[in-house]
Specification:
Helices cover 34% and strands 17% of the residues. With 423 residues, it is α/β, with parallel strands linked by helices. Strand 2 and strand 3 (55-59) form a beta hairpin. Bound molecules: magnesium ion.
C-alpha cells in the first residue's frame, strides 16, 4: 500500500490578507450592436493580497454611474476590507452590504460585486480549480447563448437573423425598430419639444411584431428559439395583448414585459397567457424577486449579476428559484465586462436550473484585454478551465481604452410631445 496522500494545508492555515483594491475603467470601440456611440463603459476591480501572486478580478460595471461606484469602492469598501482574510467571502459580503446601515441599490451593489467576484476568483486560484468546480462542478458541457438582431422592418430582421443562424446560434432575440431612435428624426415631434435624448414608440410596433414572428417561423421553422424584449416599455395591457398574440409562434420567452413598479401584473399574465416570461433586468435586490418566484409567476430569472451584488447573492437566489421551477437567463449586455461575462458562464455550467445566456456581440479588443474569457462556438459558451474565473487581464493594453467622460443620452427617452418616458 502506497503512502497516504495529503492535501497541502498551506491554503487554510497560512496568513493571507487583503492589501489593496485597484479599479480600472475601460471603453471599447463601438460594435454593430452599439452603433451610435461607444457607451459601454466597463469597470473592473482587482483585489490584491499579502501574497503578490494571489489576486482576483471582479466586474463592477454600472456604465451610467461609474464614478460613483469607483468612489464607493475607493473611499468606503477598500478601507473596510483591508487586513481581512480574502477567503472569508461570505463574511466580507455581509460586511460590505450591512456596514453602511442603508443597503442595496445599483451603486453599492456594483461596488460590492467587483470585490465579491474577485474573492471567488481568488478562492478558485488558491484551490487550483475553475469557479464552476467550487459550486458543484459542471451540470452541462456548455451554456446555450442568445444574441440580438435589430431591424427597421421584418426583412432587415430576417437578413440579420440569417447571419446569426449561419454562425450557429440556436436562440436569437429579434427586435423590430431597435430600442430607440434619434428624437429629432421623429416626424410627429411637436414644435418646442426638447430635442435631447431619444424616442421610442413601441405601441406603433405592436401590430408588426406578430407579423415578424410569423415570417421568422416561416423561414426558420420551429427549431430556432426566438425571443422579444419589451424592455419594460409597454403599458401592462398592451404587453399582455402582445404575449397572447405571440402564442401561436411559440416565443422562447418575452423579455421584461413589465417594469419593476408593475410586477403585481404578473399574476394576470400567468392566468391569461402561455407565453413564457423572463423578468428582472432592473432589479437590484433578491427580495424584489422572491414574492413572485415563490408563486412561480415567471419562467426565467433575468437579473444582472453586478447590479445584484455579485456571485454570493446570485448563488442564493438561483438555488431558491430552482425550487420553484425557474431557470436563469442572466442579463449579458455590452455594459458588463468579460470578467462579469466569465462569472455568468461559470454559474451557467454549474447551476442545474440554467436556462439561456444573453451574450452581447463584442469587439476583438475585449478578448485581447481579457484573455481566457468564455468563447462562443456554434451557439454555446464555454468557460475557461483555468483556476478561478480563468481571466488573464492585460493591464497595459487596457490603458489604450480609456472611458469617455460624457454620459450617453440613449436612456433620456421622450415622446413626440417632449414628455419623458421610462426607458
Ligand atoms: Mg432586456
Amino acid at each position: 500500500m502506497g503512502a497516504a496522500r495529503f492535501f497541502k494545508p498551506l491554503i487554510m492555515t497560512s496568513s493571507l490578507t487583503i492589501t489593496g483594491v485597484d479599479i480600472f475603467h475601460l471603453q471599447f470601440p463601438p460594435n454593430h450592436f452599439v452603433q451610435r456611440e461607444a457607451w459601454a463603459r466597463q469597470t473592473v476591480v482587482r483585489v490584491r493580497t499579502s501574497d503578490p501572486e494571489v489576486f482576483g478580478l471582479g466586474c463592477a460595471t454600472f456604465t451610467y454611474r461609474y464614478r460613483a461606484v469607483e468612489s464607493t469602492i475607493r473611499e468606503h469598501l477598500t478601507p473596510l476590507i483591508i487586513g481581512h482574510d480574502p477567503r472569508n467571502s461570505t463574511e466580507l459580503f455581509q460586511l460590505m452590504r450591512y456596514s453602511g446601515y442603508w443597503r442595496n441599490g445599483p451603486i453599492l451593489n456594483n461596488a460590492i460585486s467587483g470585490i465579491d467576484m474577485a474573492l471567488w476568483d481568488i478562492k478558485g486560484k488558491l484551490a487550483g480549480l475553475p469557479c464552476y468546480q467550487l459550486w458543484g462542478g459542471k451540470t452541462r458541457v456548455a451554456a446555450l447563448a442568445y444574441q440580438h438582431v435589430n431591424g427597421d422592418n421584418t426583412d432587415e430582421v430576417l437578413e440579420n437573423a440569417r447571419r446569426l443562424v449561419g454562425q450557429g446560434l440556436k436562440v436569437i432575440r429579434c427586435q423590430l425598430g431597435h430600442y430607440s431612435g434619434p428624437i429629432d428624426q421623429i416626424p410627429q415631434r411637436l414644435e418646442g419639444a426638447p430635442a435631447n435624448g431619444t424616442c421610442y414608440l413601441p405601441e406603433q410596433r405592436l401590430a408588426q411584431i406578430p407579423q415578424m414572428f410569423a415570417a421568422l417561423r416561416r423561414e426558420f421553422g420551429e427549431e430556432l428559439g426566438i425571443l422579444y424584449d419589451i424592455h419594460e416599455r409597454l403599458d401592462p395591457m398592451d404587453s399582455l395583448r402582445l404575449a397572447k398574440e405571440l402564442e401561436p409562434y411559440h416565443p422562447y420567452f418575452l423579455e421584461d414585459p413589465l417594469a419593476p413598479e408593475q410586477m403585481d401584473w404578473l399574476r394576470t399574465f400567468r392566468a391569461q397567457t402561455a407565453t413564457k416570461i423572463a423578468i428582472g433586468e432592473l432589479f437590484t435586490h433578491p427580495l424584489e424577486i422572491v414574492p413572485y418566484a415563490k408563486e412561480s409567476l415567471f419562467d426565467y430569472l433575468r437579473v444582472h449579476l453586478s447590479m445584484m451584488g455579485g456571485i454570493t447573492p446570485m448563488l442564493q437566489l438561483a438555488h431558491l428559484c430552482e425550487s420553484f421551477g425557474i431557470r436563469t437567463a442572466w442579463h449579458g449586455p455590452p455594459d458588463l465586462s468579460l470578467v462579469g461575462g466569465a462569472a455568468m458562464v461559470h454559474l451557467d455550467v454549474a447551476l442545474p436550473n440554467f436556462g439561456v445566456q444573453e451574450w452581447a456581440a463584442r469587439v476583438p479588443e475585449e478578448y485581447e484585454v481579457f484573455r481566457g474569457a468564455p468563447s462562443l462556438k456554434e451557439g454555446y459558451l464555454y468557460p475557461s478551465d483555468g483556476p478561478g474565473l480563468g481571466i488573464v487581464f492585460d493591464e497595459t493594453l487596457a490603458q489604450q481604452f480609456p472611458p469617455e467622460g460624457k454620459d450617453s443620452e440613449w436612456l433620456v427617452m421622450r415622446r413626440p410631445d417632449g414628455s419623458l418616458t421610462p426607458p
